[in-house]
Write a structure and sequence with these properties.
Elements: H1 4-25, H2 29-38, E1 44-46, H3 55-61, H4 66-69, H5 84-91, H6 100-110, H7 131-136, H8 142-145, E2 155-157, H9 163-172, H10 179-182
Antiparallel strand pairs: 1-2
């Protein structure tokens, strides 16, 4: 005969598996929200990059804001990636840092070669996300980008890149949820 503890354990495993499947397939935002609040580690994913860029060091120690490197964020739809000329300002020699990842940047600078960053976020072509409007309205980058500026390694937030999440955020901030707010060029 099966004990009550075994039945309870099997039930818990079944519920966890069911919630995992629902969250993986992204059926309903409410279900995903519940899943990510119970299992927050699944709300982000590591993105392999050619250089393990330390956002935390640049933000806290060097005191750079996001728009220092992402130059287009305050004026355009896309935030943009830093050009090698910007990295050259601090990483022309190993005088600033002898850390292995910083030395990789120096090699790109010396070769005058752009760092081939892997894109972390990409919305569908029919979605217009104006970074500049969000910055003008004092929406902190971490609202959408989560741990990117507070961890050493950039993390992609997988629980925030869909229409339901954006609409919920707009609703909370009393921003427009009209279709043309995000679906116009």
């Amino acid at each position: 005969m099966i004990s009550m503890k075994k039945v309870l354990a099997l039930f818990i495993v079944a519920v966890v598996l069911l919630l995992s499947i629902i969250a993986y397939h992204r059926y309903l935002y409410e279900t995903k929200s519940l899943f990510y609040s119970i299992f927050p580690i699944y709300s982000w994913a590591l993105v392999d990059q050619p250089i393990l860029f330390n956002h935390l060091h640049h933000k806290e120690t060097v005191q750079l804001n996001c728009s220092f490197c992402h130059r287009y964020a305050e004026k355009y739809l896309a935030a943009g990636l830093p050009k090698i000329e910007l990295c050259r300002a601090c990483h022309a020699t190993d005088a600033m840092s002898k850390r292995p990842e910083a030395l990789k940047v120096i090699e790109y600078v010396k070769a005058d070669k752009e760092i081939p960053w892997n894109r972390m976020y990409e919305l569908p072509k029919y979605v217009a996300f104006p970074h500049w409007i969000h910055i003008q309205n004092h929406i902190d980058c971490s609202i959408c980008h989560g741990f990117t500026g507070v961890k050493e390694r950039p993390l992609k937030m997988v629980d925030r890149n869909d229409m339901e999440w954006c609409m919920d955020c707009h609703k909370k901030r009393r921003a427009s949820n009209d279709c043309y707010t995000c679906h116009s060029s």
